[in-house]
Design a protein that fits this description.
Layout (H helix, E strand, L loop, with lengths): L3 E5 L6 H10 L4 E3 H8 L5 H10 L12 H8 L3 H28 L5 E4 L14 E6 L2 H12 L3 H10 L3 H7 L2 E4 L4 H13 L3
Keywords: ATP-binding, Coenzyme A biosynthesis, Cytoplasm, Kinase, Nucleotide-binding, Transferase
EC number: 2.7.1.24
Subcellular location: Cytoplasm
C-alpha cells in the first residue's frame, strides 16, 4: 500500500518543476491541474456551466476554455473566485480522490498529489503528508511573469488572493525552498525522498 504525499505551493514557486522531477525519477504523480483541464475541456458540462456563469468571453475561438481570461476574471474578486471554485473544484476533487484510491491499492514506493490549492480545497485529507514548495516573492513574481506574460501587479494580486505562505508553512510537514537553482532544488528533493525509502 502506497503512502501519498501532497505537493503544494503558490504561483511561481516551482511546484510543477518538483513534480516533473519526481515523474522523471519514476514516481506516480496525480496532477490536479491536469484533472481540472480534463473536466473543463471543450464540450464538457463543466465548461458549459462556466460559460453560463461568466459569459462566452471565457471561451477561445475554438470553443475551449481561455484559461488566461478565466484566471483574470476569477482573480478580479473573491466572489468570482468562489463561484469558479464551486463549479470546478468538487468535480476535480472527486476525480482526484478516485485516482488516489487506486494508487493506495498498489504496492510500491510513495506516490504524489500535485495540487496548487491543496489546503484551500480541503484536499490535504487525501494525503499522508504535505511538502510545501516555496520561494522568495521576488523570484516567484519574475518566474510567473516570464511564464504567463502577466504584469507584476497581476501576479502580486494572485499571490494575495491565495492562502498566505505563513499559514501553509504552519500546516506543511516539509518545506522545499526553491529560491535557488535547479541543482539545489533537486538535492533538497532527493534528501526528502531518502526519508521515505
Amino acid at each position: 500500500m502506497r503512502k501519498i504525499i501532497g505537493i503544494t505551493g503558490g504561483i511561481g514557486t516551482g511546484k510543477s518543476t518538483v513534480s516533473a522531477y519526481l515523474k522523471e525519477q519514476g514516481y506516480p504523480v496525480v496532477d490536479a491541474d491536469q484533472i481540472a483541464r480534463k473536466v473543463t475541456e471543450k464540450g464538457s458540462a463543466t465548461l458549459a456551466e462556466l460559460a453560463r456563469n461568466f459569459g462566452s468571453g471565457i471561451l477561445d475561438r475554438d470553443g475551449g476554455l481561455d484559461r488566461r481570461r478565466m484566471a483574470e476574471l476569477a482573480f478580479s474578486s473573491p466572489e468570482k473566485k468562489a463561484r469558479l471554485e464551486a463549479i470546478v473544484t468538487s468535480r476535480v476533487i472527486a476525480e482526484t480522490a478516485a485516482r488516489i484510491r487506486e494508487l493506495r491499492q498498489e504496492d510500491g514506493p510513495v506516490a504524489f498529489l500535485d495540487a496548487p490549492t491543496l489546503y484551500e480545497t480541503g484536499s490535504d485529507v487525501l494525503v499522508d503528508e504535505v511538502w510545501l514548495v516555496t520561494a522568495d516573492e521576488s523570484v516567484r513574481v519574475r518566474r510567473a511573469a516570464d511564464r504567463d506574460g502577466c504584469s507584476e501587479a497581476e501576479i502580486r494580486r494572485r499571490i494575495r488572493s491565495q492562502m498566505s505562505e505563513e499559514e501553509k508553512r504552519c500546516r506543511a510537514d516539509y518545506i522545499i525552498d526553491n529560491s535557488d537553482g535547479l541543482e539545489q532544488l533537486y538535492t533538497r528533493i532527493r534528501a526528502l525522498i531518502k526519508k521515505h525509502d
